[in-house]
Specification:
With about 400 residues, this protein is α/β, with parallel strands linked by helices. The chain is built from 15 helices and eleven strands. The N and C termini lie far apart (about 45 Å). The structure holds pyridoxal-5'-phosphate. The site of pyridoxal-5'-phosphate (PLP) has 16 residues, from helix 4 and helix 5.
């Protein structure tokens, strides 16, 4: 089955007592009873699959995890209460019996950098940041540091750089360090990191998977070697997703392939329209043939799906001009998230990269006129018309 069909069918219609619901229901029970105590004993002992207690298993949550695991070609998955809880679980599990050192891409999602520096740092985990788009520099960092885990994102935020994930995975294999990939921006539609040699994949399901701006969630998917530690830790700590949110996310995923296809097509058109606009200095888009990582993108992404995130520099603009533009938008939503059905804009200098000094932001290439867009499923004419009137 192709991904589009799996997204609609996989993990649904579990056989219960007699009738079979055509889609997975919301199971709210925290405990389960069996005909015999022996049966419950076998389930507690892990000899038999089944439900015993909500922190361990929940049929709705498990169905979602099974579905995402299938889409990402994993050996197992856990649905978590947020993308950050999935990242926390993944890093913790990877480092349990490995050196307490991490090599991380230098342009990670802000909260992920914060997790490494403010949570794992004080607990004795040393993080080295390196440029993931400079393969030899990154390899040197991994070889010198001998880390217990390596962390990167498929597509960086907000400048949308794409590192050679397959080559990084080889470097990690040689160094014996599991590669953790945050695949939120790409979705399994564009890239499936486990197929390219990564060990652990994490998603903020809040974004493209749930896709409607009404769920906070995360998913962690891992290979054969790493899933047992993740599962054991999850059972102990309980960072899991609620049955309601699991249901909404599973419902969202059924249309994810359709949405992402439309969003990628729309993004292509918006990016080329923006690049012609006199008030736009520069457009950052993974579908741009002049993108600095174009050859990597051509190797890793499908031809017709080049991403639905873009960013652009408003010519000579600072906070005042950017705010004026964002306030002038009538349909496009000036909101913090991404991947939803509606188009959204964000001002990195104020939101995602607020905690970073202006000097550091500029060194990262994030100017005061940079605006990030997550393209939605609306008619592309309406997205462009709204941009046109707001740009004035
Ligand atoms: C949103 C996001 C996260 C964090 O996910 P939450 O669901 O907000 O906890 C992590 N990584 C990336 C790339 C994200 O966009």
């Amino acid at each position: 089955m192709k991904l589009e069909s799996k997204a609609v069918h996989f993990a649904d219609r579990k056989r219960g007592n007699g009738c079979v619901p055509s889609t997975t229901p919301i199971h709210t029970a925290t405990t389960y009873v069996y005909d015999s105590m022996d049966a419950l004993d076998r389930i507690f002992g892990g000899e038999e699959e089944g439900q015993s207690y909500g922190r361990y298993d929940n049929p709705t949550r498990n169905a979602l995890a099974e579905l995402v695991n299938e889409l990402e070609s994993g050996a197992g998955a856990i649905a978590c209460s947020s993308g950050m809880s999935a990242l926390h679980l993944g890093i913790l599990a990877a480092l349990l019996d490995r050196p307490k050192r991490v090599v991380a891409a230098n342009a990670l999602y802000g909260a992920t950098t914060n997790l490494l520096m403010s949570v794992f740092g004080p607990m004795g985990v040393e993080t080295t940041f390196a440029d993931v788009c400079d393969i030899s520099a990154f390899e040197a960092a991994v070889t010198e540091t001998k880390p217990g885990a390596v962390i990167m994102e498929t597509v960086s935020n907000p400048l949308l750089r794409v590192a050679a994930l397959d080559k990084i995975a080889e470097i990690c294999k040689r160094a014996g360090a599991p590669l953790i990939v945050d695949n939120t921006f790409a979705t399994p539609m564009l890239v499936r990191p486990l197929e390219l040699g990564a060990s652990i994949v994490v998603h903020s399901a809040t974004k493209y998977m749930a896709g409607h701006g009404d769920v906070l969630g995360g998913v962690i998917i891992a290979d054969e070697e790493n899933i047992p530690a993740i599962r054991a830790l999850s059972r102990t700590i309980g960072p899991t997703m609620s049955p309601f949110d699991s249901y909404l996310t599973m419902r969202g995923i059924k249309t994810m392939p359709l949405r992402v296809e439309r969003q990628c097509t729309n993004a292509c058109k918006v990016a080329s329209w923006l690049s012609e606009h006199p008030r736009v200095e520069r457009v950052y888009f993974t579908g741009d043939p002049k993108h600095p990582d174009a050859s990597t993108i051509a190797r890793l992404f499908p031809k017709n799906l080049q991403g639905a995130m873009l960013a652009f520099d408003l010519k000579g603009a600072g906070k005042t001009e950017v705010f004026r533009f964002m306030e002038a938008l009538k349909m496009i939503v000036p909101a913090t998230s991404l991947g939803d059905v509606h188009t959204m804009v964000l001002y990195p200098a104020m939101a995602s990269h607020r905690e970073i000094s202006a000097k550091m932001r500029h060194r990262l290439g994030i100017g005061d006129g940079l605006i990030r867009m997550s393209i939605g499923i609306e008619a592309v004419e309406d997205i462009i018309a709204d941009l046109e009137q707001a740009l004035g």
